[in-house]
């Protein structure tokens, strides 16, 4: 009877029972949620009602600022210095001093106690708007109402439609394609490195512990290696699944407990000074991203999900078996670094290339999606934009073939490497083991 | 009946010949000492017997059939370089190793409990290996080696790291295993323990068999006609016959002890006869066989 299940069981439970497993499983989603929620929450928390005294040297801005829910404007008369003193005394939260003459588009916002982060952004926004109106009126003699009409009548809508080789049309969302492809690629990259590394570390540890000779006198090195690789894979899948579920639950929980955060995010978002630009561009993207429902439904979800699992699994298996082999060749982690970099270089390069906005249709990405060591990332990046079936089949066939080859190679290295102590192993030496 | 028959086994590592046409039989139910200097090929031989490596040529028979992977369930192996998973609980660890040797989880747990009671170490059951001292870990490793009740056991330097008390316990356990019918290979440089517990030995050097046989027979092969005599008198050795060379002489009161080497193939009875003729009261007369230490050095140096 094969002993692989016994090994899988140990590899799986010895990891799952560890405190560090539970901690990282819980901590990762918590951290991600915290990264999303905390900045919004903090911005909101500090977002108290503010009173701003406006002192305009040209008197142009007087009574032009519109009071909002959070910011109120007042226009008392007086010198700047006395206004500042009133601010220090707590009469107002800030003093907006608009400079005179040609500098009338410049202002200083004086404050004593830290105002909300969003205050400067909100004031600037209003000043921009007042100045915009003035330019419209003074230079082009257009009032705001007319401007709105111009804006609306001059809006166009361009839909991207992809045509495949058979002439079939498919509504396409270029940006969504790219984002989904990139996320899948990054997830695979993370999974492969995180868990393939665990396989390697554990091989090194067993060698350093000297338990390995007892084990391989009971099981074949190949069985031992496969049991370990599969055991760690199961740990990875479980951890990933738990993290996703937890993140979703947390997200809903936060939304339920603090509904104001999300309902107001869209309002507060652009006002948070530092985040203004990013949030605004995201909003624009979002609206155009899902503007065309038909495009959303034509998205190749089934292909994507199936391929994600195939590439996810075999990508991991290839790298885990290579890492297991190389781990067995060294006695300590420092020595293993010389092997890790050359082996992981294809993955790192692929992730760099696709994150530099390389087109999913470019020749380079096409080749990367067929070469087995880079295809797990590159192919996933391409799939949302559509991939000819023969290329997909070729890529998967090569991937599986490479997996078999890698396991065979690594089993050879593993068999010899495990019992080799005290010698710094070179690539040449490893090659000799393979040919043995 | 031989439990193991090694026939003309050769194993080469890149440019080094580890085993060079080695042929050796290991009889069933005995404690067999596997001796040899460092680098002689002992570990390679052991790894072939435990099915870790394969010979380049030659055959190994186990119970008369060619050794195969399934046979490892009948073999217990305590390697020289031995360790345990440090973070694992003691009991889980041994149960795991026993399952890899073919026991079911329940059976492994049951037998392990018996061993823990026998060694009076019940309190270690849930402790992590890293919490145990080196000596304690050695005991666990011993249990892991024997828990699946193999009929063929290989102990590679089992006494290293043991204090005298634990070494004695281990020695007794090895003798117990033999009494229960198991065959034991003991690979060690500790010649005193070889003399104490081994029935037969094989000495390997440069991958070849140098010496093999029943232990006292082997020692006899290296004897130097050296005799120990005690007499209840003071002896004057100045006019001893030249064939009887005195190697060592000690006198305590009226007692004299002599170690005498008999030269020129003179029969030992002539020495006894001479002593009686000289009116000495002989209280002891026995041949001194060389120690395994001496045998080892001689065999390796020749």
Architecture blueprint of SSEs:
The complex is a heterodimer of chains A (436) and B (302).
Chain A: H1 4-16, H2 19-45, E1 50-56, E2 71-74, H3 80-88, E3 94-98, E4 107-111, H4 118-140, H5 144-153, E5 161-163, E6 169-171, H6 174-209, H7 212-216, H8 221-257, H9 259-268, H10 276-289, H11 293-297, H12 301-329, H13 333-355, H14 363-368, H15 375-382, H16 389-417, H17 427-435
Parallel strand pairs in A: 1-2, 1-3
Antiparallel strand pairs in A: 3-4, 5-6
Chain B: E1 2-13, E2 16-27, E3 31-35, H1 42-49, E4 57-62, E5 65-66, E6 75-78, H2 90-100, H3 105-118, H4 134-146, E7 152-156, H5 164-179, E8 183-187, H6 191-197, E9 200-205, E10 208-214, H7 215-221, E11 226-231, E12 244-252, E13 255-262, H8 268-277, E14 282-287, H9 292-301
Parallel strand pairs in B: 3-8, 3-9, 6-7, 7-8
Antiparallel strand pairs in B: 1-2, 1-4, 4-5, 9-10, 11-13, 11-14, 12-13
Helix pairs in contact in B: 2-3, 2-4
Brief account:
The complex is a heterodimer of chains A (436) and B (302). Chain A is α/β, with parallel strands linked by helices and 436 residues long.
Can you describe what's shown?
- With 436 residues, chain A is of the alpha/beta class.
- The relative contact order of chain A is 0.11.
- Chain A is elongated and about 95 Å long.
- A 4-stranded mixed beta sheet of chain A has the order 2-1-3-4. In chain A, strands 5-6 form a two-stranded antiparallel ribbon.
- Chain A contains 17 helices and 6 strands.
- Helices cover 32% and strands 31% of the residues of chain B.
- In chain B, the strands form 3 sheets. A 6-stranded mixed beta sheet of chain B has the order 6-7-8-3-9-10, sandwiched between helices.
- In chain B, strand 12 and strand 13 (255-262) form a beta hairpin.
- The longest helix of chain B is centred in the middle third of the chain and has 16 residues, at 164-179.
- The two termini of chain B are 32 Å apart.
- The A-B interface holds A 3, 6-7, 10, 14, 18, 206, 209-211, 213-220, 419, 421, 432 and B 14, 47, 50-52, 69, 72, 75, 77, 79, 81-88, 96-97, 99-101, 141, 144.
